Amino acid sequence: MSNIRSGDLTSADLYTSTHRISGQVETGSKPLSDLLNDRSQSYLMVFNVYVSRLDKPGEIGAHAPTAYLSKDNLSFVIVSSREVRAPDRSRFTSHEYVIMVTLPGVEIRGTFSGPHRFDLRTFTPATLDAFVSLTQASAQIVSVPAVTLSGEAILVNKARLESFCLNE
User: Which residues contact 95 (CB under 8 A, 6 or more apart)?
Assistant: First the structure.
């Protein structure tokens, strides 16, 4: 595999259950959410990578020119709003909810666009992307409550969800 960059680079903070990986992803003309939701690729190539532990977010533990990240092991990704595909304003995204989701060791709050009668149990894997987008979002590491992470959008790995709490 080559690590030659040829397209547009997007900055992102990618979080696993134990680490923050900051770097740049080649997205071309697509938003990063499309690459994360592309089921034909299991890994994401990230350039100019800085790694830090979640319990020591200000301390850089490693730097590398390139890293391959397993999309399945990502918990969430903080990006600018332009890196999230805008929801289609249809019967499936006609209502905005203020939500809180929990993942292992993390609480995330933000806004979610979905149907008026939302029931996560009735959505099949084919109808929902692997990464759910939240806008106006912030994340808090449970073990380090003084640290709050925020961004225009947070893409949450649906497979890592523990709870999905909706408010009107």
Answer: 113, 114, 115, 116, 118
List phi, psi (to 5°) of 48. Answer: 50, 60
93 in Cβ contact with 122 (< 8 Å): no
Q: What are phi and psi of 30, to 5 degrees?
A: -95, 155
CATH annotation of 9-74: 2.30.30
- Give the list of residues 6+ apart from residue 143 with CB closer than 8 angstroms, or none: 54, 55, 105
Contacts of 15 (CB under 8 A, 6+ apart): 21, 54, 74, 75, 76, 77, 78, 106, 139, 149
Q: What is the pLDDT of residues 58-105, one digit of tens each?
A: 899 999 999 999 999 999 999 987 777 765 555 555 678 899 999 999
Q: Whose CA is closest to 108, among 150, 72, 51, 70? A: 150
Has domain 82-167 been given CATH number 2.60.40.1180? no
The separation between the first and the last C-alpha atoms of the chain, rounded to the nearest angstrom, is 47
